[in-house]
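Why do we care about 3D structure at all? Because function follows from shape, and shape follows, mostly, from sequence. That is the central idea of this module. The next example makes it concrete: a single protein chain, its amino acid sequence, and then its structure expressed as C-alpha coordinates.
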Amino acid sequence: MKILICDDSMFVRKKMKDAIAAADPEAQIAEAANGQQAVDKYKSEKPDLVFMDIIMPVKGGVDALSEIIAFDKQAKVVMASSVGTQENLKQAILSGAYDFLQKPIENDDVARIISKAKEA
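And the structure:
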Protein backbone atom coordinates (compact mmCIF):
# COMPACT_ATOMS: atom_id res chain seq x y z
CA MET A 1 0.00 0.00 0.00
CA LYS A 2 1.29 3.47 -0.93
CA ILE A 3 0.44 6.20 1.57
CA LEU A 4 1.06 9.95 1.32
CA ILE A 5 1.37 12.00 4.51
CA CYS A 6 0.83 15.73 4.12
CA ASP A 7 1.42 18.01 7.09
CA ASP A 8 3.50 21.15 7.53
CA SER A 9 4.79 19.83 10.88
CA MET A 10 7.78 17.51 10.59
CA PHE A 11 6.90 16.15 14.06
CA VAL A 12 3.38 15.20 12.95
CA ARG A 13 4.72 13.55 9.78
CA LYS A 14 7.15 11.49 11.90
CA LYS A 15 4.35 10.45 14.29
CA MET A 16 2.17 9.48 11.31
CA LYS A 17 5.00 7.47 9.74
CA ASP A 18 5.43 5.57 13.00
CA ALA A 19 1.67 4.91 13.26
CA ILE A 20 1.49 3.73 9.64
CA ALA A 21 4.54 1.48 10.04
CA ALA A 22 2.95 -0.08 13.13
CA ALA A 23 -0.32 -0.71 11.26
CA ASP A 24 1.26 -1.82 7.96
CA PRO A 25 5.01 -2.52 8.01
CA GLU A 26 4.93 -3.06 4.22
CA ALA A 27 3.52 0.40 3.43
CA GLN A 28 5.46 2.70 1.12
CA ILE A 29 5.30 6.20 2.57
CA ALA A 30 5.74 9.52 0.77
CA GLU A 31 5.64 12.94 2.44
CA ALA A 32 4.55 16.46 1.56
CA ALA A 33 4.89 19.61 3.66
CA ASN A 34 2.07 21.66 2.11
CA GLY A 35 -1.03 21.27 -0.01
CA GLN A 36 0.66 22.06 -3.32
CA GLN A 37 3.32 19.39 -2.70
CA ALA A 38 0.49 16.98 -1.81
CA VAL A 39 -1.27 17.58 -5.14
CA ASP A 40 2.00 17.21 -7.09
CA LYS A 41 3.01 14.04 -5.21
CA TYR A 42 -0.47 12.56 -5.58
CA LYS A 43 -0.27 12.97 -9.34
CA SER A 44 3.23 11.46 -9.56
CA GLU A 45 2.97 8.73 -6.88
CA LYS A 46 -0.72 7.72 -7.17
CA PRO A 47 -0.97 6.67 -3.49
CA ASP A 48 -3.72 4.36 -2.23
CA LEU A 49 -4.38 6.59 0.77
CA VAL A 50 -3.57 10.18 1.80
CA PHE A 51 -3.46 11.62 5.31
CA MET A 52 -3.72 15.42 5.01
CA ASP A 53 -3.71 18.27 7.49
CA ILE A 54 -6.37 20.91 6.92
CA ILE A 55 -4.38 24.03 7.87
CA MET A 56 -1.11 24.36 5.90
CA PRO A 57 0.92 27.04 4.14
CA VAL A 58 1.05 27.55 0.33
CA LYS A 59 -2.20 25.62 -0.27
CA GLY A 60 -4.57 24.50 2.47
CA GLY A 61 -5.77 20.94 2.88
CA VAL A 62 -9.33 21.55 1.64
CA ASP A 63 -8.08 23.18 -1.59
CA ALA A 64 -5.57 20.36 -2.09
CA LEU A 65 -8.32 17.79 -1.43
CA SER A 66 -10.53 19.41 -4.08
CA GLU A 67 -7.71 19.31 -6.64
CA ILE A 68 -6.87 15.68 -5.86
CA ILE A 69 -10.55 14.64 -6.12
CA ALA A 70 -10.85 16.53 -9.44
CA PHE A 71 -7.80 14.58 -10.68
CA ASP A 72 -8.95 11.20 -9.28
CA LYS A 73 -12.57 10.73 -8.19
CA GLN A 74 -11.57 7.47 -6.38
CA ALA A 75 -8.92 9.18 -4.21
CA LYS A 76 -9.01 8.25 -0.52
CA VAL A 77 -8.00 11.40 1.36
CA VAL A 78 -8.24 11.43 5.15
CA MET A 79 -8.31 14.91 6.64
CA ALA A 80 -6.67 15.64 9.99
CA SER A 81 -7.99 18.46 12.13
CA SER A 82 -7.19 20.00 15.49
CA VAL A 83 -9.88 21.29 17.78
CA GLY A 84 -11.22 24.58 16.48
CA THR A 85 -11.20 23.68 12.78
CA GLN A 86 -14.64 22.04 12.72
CA GLU A 87 -15.94 24.35 9.98
CA ASN A 88 -12.96 23.38 7.80
CA LEU A 89 -13.67 19.73 8.55
CA LYS A 90 -17.26 20.11 7.35
CA GLN A 91 -15.95 21.72 4.17
CA ALA A 92 -13.49 18.84 3.68
CA ILE A 93 -16.23 16.23 4.02
CA LEU A 94 -18.40 18.13 1.54
CA SER A 95 -15.38 18.26 -0.82
CA GLY A 96 -15.06 14.47 -0.82
CA ALA A 97 -12.84 13.50 2.13
CA TYR A 98 -12.72 9.73 2.68
CA ASP A 99 -12.51 10.01 6.47
CA PHE A 100 -11.16 12.32 9.15
CA LEU A 101 -8.89 12.20 12.18
CA GLN A 102 -8.92 14.42 15.22
CA LYS A 103 -5.50 15.62 16.39
CA PRO A 104 -3.62 14.52 18.38
CA ILE A 105 -3.67 11.44 16.17
CA GLU A 106 -3.96 8.03 17.83
CA ASN A 107 -2.26 4.96 16.34
CA ASP A 108 -5.47 2.92 16.66
CA ASP A 109 -7.36 5.43 14.50
CA VAL A 110 -4.66 5.30 11.81
CA ALA A 111 -4.74 1.47 11.86
CA ARG A 112 -8.56 1.49 11.58
CA ILE A 113 -8.47 3.77 8.52
CA ILE A 114 -5.71 1.77 6.80
CA SER A 115 -7.67 -1.43 7.41
CA LYS A 116 -10.85 0.17 6.04
CA ALA A 117 -9.01 1.41 2.93
CA LYS A 118 -7.52 -2.02 2.26
CA GLU A 119 -10.99 -3.61 2.37
CA ALA A 120 -12.51 -1.02 0.02
